[in-house]
Amino acid sequence: MARKTSIPTSNTNEKLRYAVDEMERYACVTKMFGNGMCEITLNDRSKLIGHIRGAFRGKQKHRNTIIVNTIVLVGLREWEDQKKNCDILYIYDDNQIIQLQCQPQIDIKNLLIMKLSHGEKQCENSNIQFSNETEEESKAALETIEEFIINAEGQIDIDDI
Fold first, then answer.
1. Is residue 159 part of a domain?
2. Any residues with CB less than 8 A from the CB of 62 and at least 6 apart, and which?
3. For 86-95, what is each residue's pLDDT tens digit?
4. Is 0.90 surpassed by the pTM of this model?
5. Separation between Cα atoms, residue 49 and residue 72, nearest integer Å
6. What is the dihedral of CA 114, 98, 32, 64, to 10 degrees?
7. Nearest-5° angle of CA 82, CA 55, CA 66?
8. Phi and psi at residue 114, in whole multiples of 5°?
9. For residue 87, what is the domain's CATH number?
């Protein structure tokens, strides 16, 4: 970054943040609502509204981009009787997720399954089709399609329209 206020940091110096309190949970972002809010799915499949704090906005956002299928650490609000809101405390990148998987006391298998299955659903909805046909087979398939031929007899007069 070419700013006077930016301090160059690398991800190797950062310590991995673990959940240290019972009110901190690992979760996956499933929808983005806008206005600093998103839908969060916890490891037990319960859904909450996550509030994106100021630390993940503005100039600090370039390393902390929150998108769908991002694994995050959230803090539940203990003053709420019905748990429906939470605050995003930390965003994990791919290398940190691998480190979390290696920890035996941390169970994020459901979150990883959600992350992978949601990515497959997005691919299914697209109109792109992949095939293992060779170029010769595709040319042969195109030759079998009948061509649309316009008759020279049928002329259209624009004044008649």
1. no
2. 1
3. 999 999 988 8
4. no
5. 13
6. 180
7. 75
8. -60, -45
9. 2.40.50.140
